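Forum: Protein Structure Q&A
Topic: Joint prediction for protein chains with partners

I've read a bunch of threads here and the consensus seems to be that you should model interacting components together rather than docking separate models afterwards. I'd like to see that in practice. Below is the full input, 314 residues plus whatever partners are listed. Could one of the regulars post the assembled result?
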Amino acid sequence: MADAPESKMIEMQLGRVIRHDTADRSYIFLQEKGGARSFPIVIGRYEAEEIYRVLTKQDPRRPLTHQLAHAAIESLGAHIARCDIVDLRDNTFFAQLVLSAGGGATTAVVDARPSDAIALALRSGAGIRVAESILEQVRSDESGPDPLPEDPAPPQS
Amino acid sequence: MADAPESKMIEMQLGRVIRHDTADRSYIFLQEKGGARSFPIVIGRYEAEEIYRVLTKQDPRRPLTHQLAHAAIESLGAHIARCDIVDLRDNTFFAQLVLSAGGGATTAVVDARPSDAIALALRSGAGIRVAESILEQVRSDESGPDPLPEDPAPPQS
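Posted by a regular:
Agreed with the consensus. Here's the joint model:
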């Protein structure tokens, strides 16, 4: 179980999803709820496909890996409470998936890639938060190259 | 939660793993423990890579989707007890991941693709079982084309 995040956490929502057929060239954008800040995360093709499936309400014929994870958590009487993106180091984002069990009596926190945690949170209708310190960091990065879809600069999930 | 399997269940172990770079062209072979029966399952590239990582004791730098599923299950005080391959319909295998919680007091059963369930079972040191009816079915199939790695005939996970 990972430590709780220390920075102030900001509520975000999913913006655009840009899927690329080649590996690790898909993007998602997170937007500040009730705010103007937004930033992209480079994610893998498989996770981008799963996020797209959730957004378009597609259920695969058989449970894929994310659906299995989701079903396993729910089969244990727990649910996905939140996705927290808590760190940005070496151009890589780090997230935590927050689970609630026992009718909210217990919380479990699991380290995850943002792409996986966001995919699972979206499927559960759970919230997405990002540490204020990360929002400041990615904003300061905007003085650099514009993070267009073809730009390899945005930090990876 | 899925129903418990009705057929007699046979203990299996993982045999060869054949990875292909293209999607859905990797194979794993399951072998009967203390028996001679064996059969291949076509699995996806992503799941083949995860099974290979488990076999070669590689831990990715950050948790990938299977590791996240595994960690989430364990964070809830449960563990993966078994992978059961329970059905073969329309050339497709169906599996169940059996979870044990509360120190063995509770069992949860989740529908899964065999590739995901086998990957998670292997990482947990849990057993793999296949329904006797499936073993009979794949054996009778052996009168057909030989399931060589380049043969698209074996049922998919």
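Residues 21 and 114 of chain B are 20 Å apart (CA to CA).
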